[in-house]
Write the structure tokens for this entry.
Amino acid sequence: MKSVELFAGAGGLALGVAFAGFTHEAVIEWDKWACDTIRENQLRQNPLVADWPLYEQDVRSFDFSSLHDIDLVAGGPPCQPFSLGGKHKAHSDKRDMFPTTIDVVRCLKPKAFLVENVKGLTRASFANYLQYTILQLSYPELTRYPNESWSEHFSRLEEEKTSGRVDGVTYDVVFRVVNAADYGIPQRRERVFIVGFRHDLGVRWSFPEPSHSLESLLYSQWVNGEYWERHKINGSKNYILSEKLKKNIEKMKCVTEKPSKKPWITVRDALQGIPEPHKGDSFYSNHIFQPGAKIYAGHTGSPLDLPAKTLKAGGHGVPGGENMLVMPDGSVRYFTVRESARLQTFPDTYVFHGSWTETMRQLGNAVPVALARLMAGSVAEKLLEAESRRLERIVQ
């Protein structure tokens, strides 16, 4: 199955899509540092990315006419217009790449698309724009007229939706806010995924069911103690707990049966086997101690025995002050680049190019590889089923 990767960044989503069985026909990213990361892995002959056709350029200037029969378009359009840390301009922000994404879908007519973005896209203030975007992805050939406002175009798309007509290439689109921790990622990272299948394929798809839960983690830590036994430590001794966590633990102690889901994966789980960072070189690439970590208002770091908070696209200060590890005794230090890569489920063989601040920006913007693989794998399964049905009809 053939795929095209838009706004690839350092390659998190692209890796997950490749792991799911897709072959990239184009991997497009305009940022030099992110491209350098992919290129460095290619120079090291990393088999994960060795054959990627990487294009360092703006997606808007890429010539898609040479690409045909694409099964999947995937990408995470720049999220600054919707991020909680941005100016919240949405469609009035020139960095909004959703229109470009829709243009690519219109051009390539892929069998499916997979789009990831920040949770802020679902805020009430963006509700109309989100619905507008979903309708454009559903009816990519129903384009905006010259001098037509976006709200007028929105109304015309709504009329098409309610008419029940299916003219030209259309897509069945769903979206959901997904917490990565619920799918076995060692990070509480909430993101929007938008998934669409071309209507003529007749695909019926829903998001994969969550496999992990906070309740299961607390049960394994504070009820049956399996978590501490596995790590060979006495975690309950002198452990500093927040009041909110204490209340949740008390609730779990009243549970009579072990929860059915797997426990959330913690920072301690994710960093198992990797040594404490030092100021010099390490056997693990990108694993160098970064000084200067401290807690201040709004930036309190990630406890060792919970999934990490969302990694932020920054180094020191706001928002990078949040990219810290909090030990059980309350002491803090910055996550190294390698540790951050573990939290984003990148393989240890995947190296990052640039300074600590630059690589942390790449990681903060990335999609967790394992989550991307899960989502893309679910899409791939349905595409294979649709192809099987098509071949059966031909035989008959």
Summary: The chain has a mean pLDDT of 90. Residues 218-255 form one domain.
